[in-house]
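User: My advisor asked me to double-check a structure prediction for Insulinase family protein before group meeting. I don't want to rely on an old file, so could you generate it fresh from this sequence?
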Amino acid sequence: MAKASVEKAGMPKKISEQKGVSEFRLANNLKVLISENHSAPVATLLVIYKVGSRNEGVGYTGATHFLEHMLFKGTAEHNAEKGNSLDDLLTQIGAYWNATTWFDRTSYYEVVPTEFFELCVKLEADRMRNLRLRQEDHDSEMSVVRNELERGENQPEEALEKELYAIAFREHPYHHPTIGWRSDVEGVPMDRLREFYNTFYWPDNATVIALGDFKTEEALSVIDKYFGAIASAPSPIPQVYTVEPPQEGERRFEITRAGDMVRVWLGYHVPEAAHPDNYAVSAVRQILGSTYERSSRLYKALIDTSLAADVFARHDDLRDPGLLMVGAMVNPDIDPQKVEDILLNEIARLAKEPVSDEELARIKASNRKGTILAKADPSSLAFMLGEAESRADFTWLLNYDDNFDKVTKDDIMRVARTYFKRSNRTVGYFYPKDELSPEAYEEGDLEIDSAITDSDINEGDEEYVPAYVQGAIGADGEKNGLYSDSELKDLLTWQSTPVTIKFEKAKESDYLSKVKRVVLKNGLTLLLMNNPGTESLGIAINLRAGRYFTHGEPGSPSEMLGDLLSRGSKNFDKLKIAENLEEMGIPGGLEVYVDNYRVGIGTHLAVEDLPIYLDMVSDLLINPLLPVDELEKLKIEWNARYVESKNSTKSMAWNKLRQALYSEDHPFYDEDFDKQLKDLAQIDRQKLVDIHSRLYDPASMIVTIVGDIDLDKAHKLVEERLGAWTNAKAMATAERSVHIPETALPKNFQEIAVYLPEKSSLDIVLAHPCQVTRASSDFYATRIANAALGQDTITSRLGQVVRDRAGLTYGIYSGFSDTAFGGAPWSVTLTTNPANLKRAVQLTRATLKDFMERGIDVNDLEKERGRALGSFKVGLSSSLGIARVLTEFEFLGLGAAELDHISERYLTLTKEKVDQALRKYIHPDNAVLVASGTISK
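Assistant: Sure, here is a fresh prediction for Insulinase family protein from the sequence you gave:
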């Protein structure tokens, strides 16, 4: 290996400063981008390596992604054995961190309280050249990476995307999926990964991006201190020289697999991100739109006509020429060819007739507003700069809006004629197998000792598994049996290591004094807080009108009402709502969510858009049209959703779990999907009008606005639009108290199997009803106990044993479904290869038992305390994040004052308190386990 460090050859050199972003070069040719943002005491560090799946070849596809996983396995200085690995340290400070791999790049990032910025720089610099890359880590991580691949294989969309790229690209490495081909993932040797690391992980093939609450000079000094001592690459970084030749005719393919609904996808070759035509291609993407862009052409042509349940247009800006993809999920009983014809006609229109002035102006306004909103969040801007670096150069992003504004109607017609030709397209269909429809699942008791083995899989069996799933099951056959006692003991042996970063005392905060709380005459609660310097705001609106208050009425009417709200009001029709939101930089539409107890609306806005947003939302809440034709369209969309759910291993597992845990009259019981489908027919407009009259009123409403606002002006805006609203028919606030019936724990551990055909990965859920509530005196102790057990798949106990040591899953978590009023499930969730079912369940239960007996480790208590405090600060780094927390605390009766006491709550916890809460609320032996997927009888 080449020498990893050198004496620094000189000071960093400033190259440019543009639009608030400063560019520097270190002596080793590392590119550094820094931008200050003082809206929150948070910093983001992002390291981009210009290596992705485009740098791979046959035999080692997926190597970049596999190596990304290996970068978390430690260096000589920072590793799990010492208790100071990157994951260990970042957990202690409550960081938000991860890594991603794509065609053109690999990126590693951390979002942390600003005081820990230097720690992140040190850790990233260390792993740039000092990885251990051990064989034992490779071996355990392979099955983790493979399970990530298998999870994707369960999804029709991922199967289509993989096949579309593979057929559209024959010579260029975009042919290969980023995660790699299965046999390469299973077979790539450690030496190949080491070679990849030593070829591409150097300062002169990387860009370090830092944004946050610091001074540029100080951040640069820290970056130079750690990265500046690393040598440049000893040899030139290999460049990709393969060029995809022009396509000479339409290509078509079909995928036939167990599934739910037909999908139709089209892909057209388009230029690279740096090409001048790229901006017009992006304009085409926005004009075509998606399911969530109701002013778009595809929505009007296919969703509004109930021909499709989902539509999209997607343009991946890539370093080399890529694809514009367009697709639809066809509604049942609709001819897929008709849907394909409409997709083709909409694309052909772009070449034949100019887009309207209104369309072009709207997408340009949306683009600029989106940039403003992204800049308000330092993390979002950092990621956008990173993508720009991988595609072209960071200036590509800084100049993007200006270049996009130059796009003309003639440009759009020209690129449509140039690129959207039959000879340049690939067409793919996904067809579900009739004989293996999702309705053919079987359920029954799951006996771990008889779970799937190689001998269960034989062609001609009733449950014959196709070749691509057989490969998954047979690839790791040695794990089919149960662990021996000695193997379990080794896996569960735990070395406690002291934390190195401690929060000794609570840092004082003063949210209570910053938040203006006003109750209007009609009972509406208004919370306002200034967060200057962002040119934006976050707004969160909450009504006490969730599922609980319509429990027992067939068809989930409260959710249907929430979905129908944005389909039109007295003064804003559906199209006008969509157009307004798009111009505000919110092309995804009005975000209305309905949970157990609340209906919520919220978003991130430019300050100037608050008046029109409040005009629109207030009219939707007070004067919704609830049109019959839109209700019927919505029922068709929901029908498709239920059909999809019946083929989803995750949805089916949770559905059967809730049926096993709760009685039919319990608020948390779930009807099976066939029953839910039938109940749709019972929802009519009058039922929704009645629910609106009963539940939508100002006395049950909270409006929170946080951002770069004048509090008095914001107060006046809300008062003018919502202050006069009254609803004499509404259920009295006193009648809206919540009483969740206490559900007894299962007397014994129960197991249920749900059979779904042709699934490469299983979903497993272990759960029981849990009585902890947000108001419980031991809530924080319970939260810390669960965090140490399974909040994070990398650093919590379940993840370290089942994922990291045993390699049985890509992700395992434990958590609470809803702690507002108790009674909702506490659960452990994981995915695994069907061949590993026995061991995954056995090891998960053994880990739970061990944790329950030992209780929380004192060092884990310190670690999770730090995680909770740091992540709370990171979570409040945006105005919308603050608005949502304030709204949540107001709803629960805690108020803004609780934000000022959270540090104290965590710092006063002891092992005794946490263990008491753990054993009071969590009972893994009195639970139900459901495994869903391709499981043999």
